[in-house]
Amino acid sequence: MLATSKENAAAGIYIYASETESIDKDVEIDLYQFILDDKYDLHAYTSILSTSVNAGIETDVSHIFDVPNAGVTPQKAFIRAVEGGVLPLVSTTYANDPQVAVTDPQNSAIGRINPNIEFFTRYQNNKTITLHKTHADAINNVNPITFASGQAGLKFDVYANKRRSPMRFDPGFTDATATNGKWYIQCKDQSSEPQSVLNNNIFWRISQSDYGDRQRSTDMWYQRLEDNRDRMKEHTRFVWSFLSILRTQEILSMVSFLRQELTILVS
Question: What is the CA radius of gyration of the chain?
């Protein structure tokens, strides 16, 4: 489909094939991909440990997680403490597992669920999920991450990336400037493609010596378009309505006055 502007393309207003018999050979066509979403954030739920579902996490509102299966992209979630709160303690089964719990003895959160790890989720009911280390465990509803007893009423936040969003968050990203994760632009995974394809991939480019130590790349960018067409239409209708109520003589007088003013300004 073709559109006459980037704004029209983003809004889904196209020139249909029946309206376009041909395109001149000198017409340049730009290709764009648009994601129509005005909130590039995370699914977020204030949660507590369930008292009715084994290893369950109960969300404050109905969640978006499904029953997983092998033919669907896995859904993941990670946990963060609420402001002024603490993370939930995991059971002794997982307390020494760094892929589940904080194990650093210098960290005050030792023994609590690791906030930098994404876990596979499984639907239990419309407000309860369980977390699993592997997608297979989530599919088979086995080996959920269990928590220590005595934490009734403890509140914490559950976060998950949106499925169709150009922006995603990696909670496990750590470097000299980011220790609690980092936002990034989601791109197509071509890591298994032949080298001839990789040479044209942005990831190959930013790993070169002149870009390897930079936080961002000038070879790509992300731009939000603002659609002002409705406001322009309102302005046009106002001007047209205003002019339509003026008599012809008044319009001519106005034009003559404007010409005189312009002549004075030019002089």
Answer: 28
pTM, whole model, 2 decimals?
A: 0.64
Displacement of CA 100 from its chain's centroid (Å): 25
Quick: pLDDT tens for 142-168: 999 999 999 999 999 999 998 777 788
Q: Which residue has tokens 């319009």?
A: 251
Neighbouring C-beta atoms of residue 38, cutoff 10 Å: 6
User: In this structure, which amino acid lies at residue 188?
Assistant: K
Rounded mean pLDDT, 245-267: 54
CB burial readout 75-93, b (16+ within 10 A) else e? bbbbbbbeeeeebbbbeee
The rounded Cα 82 to chain-centroid distance in angstroms is 21
* 3-state SS class at 216: coil
Q: Which two tokens stand for residue 89?
A: 């303690």
CA distance to 2, 11, 76, 158, per residue, from 116 (Å): 43, 37, 12, 12
Give the residue extent of every domain in the chain: 38-186, 188-224, 229-255
Digit-coded pLDDT (tens) for 205-246: 777 777 656 665 555 555 666 666 665 555 555 455 544 544
